[in-house]
Amino acid sequence: MLLQPNDHWCWFVGKDRHLMLDLGEEMLFSTPYQQKRLLCADDMHQSFSVEDTGLYYTFLDKLSCVATPSRRVQAALNGVAVARFYKPLMPQSWFFEPQADYHKPQLGELIGLECSERHLTMMVVETSPAASLCISLSADVELNESKTLPVFGAIKVMNDRLFSLEGSLAEEIRRVG
């Protein structure tokens, strides 16, 4: 079931210090993002804006190849949360292999990153000419001895590390989630 945004949706910080989205009708969506990583106050209550709705539908469209509707909605809402509230990040490209072809991603595009001979599937939630902010659609991956990138974890990387998942890797994306 795909959720349709409405005027009653509202962002807030829950008691556990995670960003939450009140979907109305006693339904809540809890993001994995703790308040300390976000630009929002304790008492924040912000409506799901027109811009949020646009991002949500952009992400849903790009996630059409993801296996289940519930996983698509989860990824799209987490993408909106990161795009709207995440604190600015510095690129952490050193975890990923440079690619021969420079790829300039589009908002919501599913891209790949290569880390220690493992391919990660990511969704772009913010772009610039040099770097992109992405969320992971892959299972938790250990980037080094002290850093793990969880599913839906946000990371900013230089665009020279990204590769397109169009074509030959489309089947792999369907298995994500």
Give a structural overview.
This is Cell division protein ZapC. Keywords: Cell cycle, Cell division, Cytoplasm, Septation. Residues 3-87 form the Cell-division protein ZapC N-terminal domain. It comes from Oceanimonas baumannii. The protein has 2 domains: 10-85, no CATH class; 93-175, no CATH class. Strand 6 (118-127) and strand 7 form a beta hairpin. The chain has helices spanning 50-62, 69-85, 170-175; strands spanning 10-13, 18-24, 27-34, 45-47, 110-115, 118-127, 131-136, 141-144, 147-149, 154-158, 163-164. The protein has 177 residues and is an alpha+beta fold. The two termini are 15 Å apart.
Shape: globular
Element-by-element helix/strand order: EEEEHHEEEEEEEH
β-strand amount: 25-35%
Computed structural class: alpha+beta
Question: How many E strands?
Answer: 11
> What integer value in Å does the Rg equal?
16 Å
**Averaged pLDDT:** 90
- The parts where pLDDT drops under 50 for at least 5 residues are none
| Number of helical regions | 3
Q: What is the CA–CA distance across the termini? A: 15 Å
Helix content: 10-25%
Largest sheet data: 5 strands, antiparallel
